[in-house]
Amino acid sequence: MTTASRNTTLLDARVPRYTSYPPANRFTDAVGAETAADWMAAISPDARVSLYAHIPFCRRLCWFCACRTQGTRSDAPLHRYLDHLEDELALVRGLLPEGVRADAIHLGGGTPTILPGELLSRLGNGLREAVPPTEDAEISVEIDPCEIDAPRLDALAAMGLTRASIGVQDFDPVVQDAIGRHQGAEVTAATVEGLRARNVNSLNVDLLYGLPHQTVARLISTLERVLDLAPDRIALYGYAHVPWMARRQKLIPEAALPDGEARIVLNQTARELLTRNGYVPVGIDHYALPHDKMAVAARTGKLRRNFQGYTTDRADTLIGLGASAISRFPGGYAQNAPATGAWQERIAARRLATTRGYVLTDEDRACGAIIERLMCDGVADIPALCAAEGVSPVPYLHRARRAISELPDIASLEDGRLAVTSFAYVRIVAARIDGLSMSGKGRYSMAS
Ligand SMILES: C[S@@+](CC[C@H](N)C(=O)[O-])C[C@H]1O[C@@H](n2cnc3c(N)ncnc32)[C@H](O)[C@@H]1O
Ligand code: SF4
Predict the structure, then answer these.
(1) Which residues contact residue 146 at a Cβ distance below 8 angstroms, ignoring those fewer than 6 apart?
(2) Is 191 exposed, middle or buried (0-12, 13-18, 19+ CB in 10 A)?
(3) Which end of the chain, N or C, is more open, meaning fewer C-beta atoms within 10 Å of its C-beta?
(4) Would you state the pLDDT for residue 14?
(5) Closest residue CA from atom 6 of ligand 2
(6) 189 vs 205: CA distance, rounded Å
(7) Which residues contact residue 398 at a Cβ distance below 8 angstroms, ignoring those fewer than 6 apart?
(8) pLDDT higher than 60, residue 7
(9) DSSP codes of every residue in 101-166
(10) Which residues are paired to 381 by β-bridges?
(11) Of the given ranges (4-13, 64-73, 89-98), which has the lowest mean pLDDT?
(12) Which listed ligand is nearest to 71 at the C-alpha?
């Protein structure tokens, strides 16, 4: 096997995205509503936390999408959902000590902007009353440009919106046909204009590479149209084809998917074009203009990673609201019931809807910190990160050395500093630090 083809295999390996440590598939029922309530009550009254409200509904169901979301034509489920979110906020308010403020509020999905303006206003007011935001809080939302209008933009502006993330994926009509998502460039440009007219100037665009029928020429054309919109940030995710998990992906024409080598070329082409146009690469899949908070955080070693991916959010507590939402506390993770019905039932019974989670040990914290620094900076000082948690660096140094002996060209270790040679390999190295090893089929499992 040549180095290039071996590396392609590595890139295709199914490794966690490490948006948390440990990944959410290792959560168990050891954490329930009582533990989550204890963790919430133990937050310091002067703490600054982040809030995340999950809206798991969409008007359209794009075939490529791996997000947990449900389609709805009527607004009735949205009204029911919002009633329950307000009840959940009241529960949280009752548990949090007086004085806790929000440094960040994020509305994610699904499609949060499926909520009519009136419901968005109610949600904004509910969030702000439950955990008042600080003066310079970041208030952000994920927007589907096909699901937004002036009343909803007005409601978001009234909420104090400071950032918006706009879903595009690809502008090419052939690619759009193959992924079941049609979205003209005009509707996207109108969304950008509507946001800027309301003084929301911090904008991100989501794109995907590795889509069916995507060619270098088509991707370049999409990128050029995105550059015309001049967003501060661009997220260019590698399309994850996981039809056994996201069943609607069975509609994706597999024969038209670019292979591993073609994906690398697409990614590299985008990287060159974006850097030529002044964007700085951030981590594995983000680009930002040099003045943007994310580029600054990356430059100064302050970039973080959470369930939304890369973030500038520094809070050590994240309170997740809504079906399937995950909260992170200093003591561990707590996840709400994933199904909307089950989440609503628990909230209607006036209790937190936590059904799974994870209690962190000092070793987990050290391993998580090494992986987070690798994912954010490409470098991790293993002894220093372990010392901060009071644990021995020996097992992690051992795993690092073993990874390098097996895969010498993807990382180096000097004075305990583990560095990847390219962000393309960082998840592979992170998986080794996590104690996972690759089987012959390109799948990862816990090493013995
Ligand atoms: C919640 S959606 C975006 C908001 C909004 N619903 C929209 O479609 O515009 C979050 C993002 O996840 C990414 N995503 C969804 N499915 C994916 C997949 N299979 N592989 C990689 N990224 C994916 C897409 O880039 C998408 O914009
Ligand atoms: S990409 Fe957005 S609109 Fe499409 S199904 Fe996923 S969450 Fe819904």
Answers:
(1) 59, 60, 183, 187
(2) buried
(3) C
(4) 73
(5) 65
(6) 11
(7) none
(8) no
(9) EEEEEEEEES-GGGS-HHHHHHHHHHHHHHSPEEEEEEEEEEE-GGG--HHHHHHHHHTT--EEEE
(10) 417
(11) 4-13
(12) 2
Ligand 2: does its nearest atom lie under 6 Å from the Cβ of 62?
A: yes
Q: Which residue has the CA at smallest separation from atom 4 of ligand 2?
A: 62
- Mean per-residue pLDDT for 128-135? 96
CB 88 within 8 A of CB 355: no
pLDDT tens, position by position, 146-204? 999 999 999 999 999 999 999 999 999 999 999 999 999 999 999 999 999 999 999 99
Answer whether 79's CB lies under 8 Å from 119's CB: yes
Looking only at the bridges linking them, the beta strands covering 233-238 and 202-209 are: parallel
* Residue reference for tokens 């440590």: 21
Residue type at 126 in one-letter notation: G
d(CA 439, CA 2): 19
Length of the chain as a residue count: 448
Beta pairing partners, 142: 165
User: Does the beta carbon of 167 sit less than 6 angstroms from any atom of ligand 2?
Assistant: yes
pLDDT (tens digit per residue) in 197-243: 999 999 999 999 999 999 999 999 999 999 999 999 999 999 999 99
pLDDT value of position 184: 93
Q: How many Å lie between the centroid of ligand 1 and the Cα of residue 204?
A: 13
In contact, 121 and 155? CB cutoff 8 Å: yes
Tell whether ligand 2 has an atom less than 6 A from the beta carbon of residue 65.
yes
Distance CA 433, CA 273 (A): 33
Hey, what's the torsion of the CAs at 65, 62, 88, 324, to 10 degrees?
-30
